[in-house]
């Protein structure tokens, strides 16, 4: 029997294989603590965000920057102390045989941010890397919608073990699109609020603008992400379970 699959079938199989790989990675990550079909749990949301320890590791560098810069207005101290704390957090993870991946990722972000601020001598440039990350996130999410493969659909499919349900079930697909738009709004709101403060701090050299930027970044960081994750969970939970027969690769 001859193989009648064409180039389009090969591309579809390759994409489906990539979806499966993403699903496995999601289930093995912190997000694996979330069960979309269950009632939202504060504990599960907390674990998905790295637990108490992970949240402290995420918030502490920003808090230290704000406090030190407010007191001293010294760029070096303001960025190097948080960097040192991030290094200690990674070392503690390694020593206690914890999971250093998230802490190391945070260290990389803090390190890049500190390097930029030290090179320019402007404390506000400590936030420039965050703007780049948020911009890339918005672009990726928008591109996924344009490609008709909403990233939140892949994420939810990975958590439920049904990576194709969002493509074959209209209700799930609609939720995946709306949830992806929600996260575009979250990241876009961060940029819309923080970039003007950054411009005010860099162009005018206003200390108050840098302090406001640091405060806003903390408020629109972990708390905003936690709220968005909760809303996403509620949206996904509202969709009835699809039949197992629907969880088969959709035709291109």
Folded structure, characterized:
The protein has helices at residues 7-27, 42-48, 51-72, 75-95, 100-120, 128-146, 151-160, 165-168, 170-204, 207-219, 222-237. With 252 residues, it is mainly alpha-helical. Helix 3 (51-72) packs antiparallel against helix 4 (75-95) and helix 3 (51-72) runs parallel beside helix 5. The model is unreliable at 243-252 (pLDDT under 50). The protein has one domain. It contains eleven helices and no strands.
User: Roughly what is the average pLDDT, rounded to an integer?
Assistant: 80
Strand segment count: 0
List the uncertain runs.
243-252
Tally the helices: 11
What is the rounded Rg?
A: 21 Å
Strand content: under 5%
Give the helix/strand class: mainly alpha
Through-space gap between termini: 23 Å
The major pleated sheet works out as: none
Secondary-structure element string: HHHHHHHHHHH
Total number of domains = 1
Shape: globular
The amount of helix comes to over 70%
Highlighted features:
mainly alpha; 11 helices; disordered C terminus
Topology summary:
Layout: H1 7-27, H2 42-48, H3 51-72, H4 75-95, H5 100-120, H6 128-146, H7 151-160, H8 165-168, H9 170-204, H10 207-219, H11 222-237
Quick take:
With 252 residues, the protein is mainly alpha-helical.
């Amino acid at each position: 029997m001859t193989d009648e699959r064409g180039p389009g079938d090969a591309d579809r199989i390759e994409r489906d294989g990539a979806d499966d790989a993403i699903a496995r990675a999601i289930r093995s990550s912190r997000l694996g603590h979330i069960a979309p079909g269950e009632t939202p749990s504060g504990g599960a949301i907390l674990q998905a965000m790295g637990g108490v320890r992970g949240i402290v590791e995420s918030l502490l560098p920003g808090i230290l920057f704000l406090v030190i810069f407010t007191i001293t207005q010294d760029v070096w101290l303001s960025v190097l102390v948080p960097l040192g704390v991030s290094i200690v957090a990674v070392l503690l993870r390694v020593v206690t045989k914890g999971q250093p991946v998230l802490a190391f990722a945070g260290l990389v972000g803090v390190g890049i941010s500190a390097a930029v601020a030290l090179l320019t001598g402007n404390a506000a440039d400590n936030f420039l890397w965050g703007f780049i990350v948020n911009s890339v996130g918005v672009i990726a999410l928008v591109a996924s919608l344009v490609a008709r493969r909403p990233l939140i659909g892949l994420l939810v499919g990975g958590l439920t073990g049904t990576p194709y349900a969002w493509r074959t079930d209209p209700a799930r697909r609609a939720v995946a699109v709306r949830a992806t738009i929600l996260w575009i709004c979250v990241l876009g709101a961060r940029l819309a609020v923080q970039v003007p403060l950054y411009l005010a701090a860099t162009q005018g050299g206003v200390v108050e603008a840098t302090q406001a930027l640091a405060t806003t970044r903390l408020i629109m960081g972990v708390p905003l992400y936690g709220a968005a994750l909760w809303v996403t969970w509620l949206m996904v939970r509202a969709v009835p379970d699809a039949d197992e027969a629907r969880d088969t690769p959709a035709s291109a």
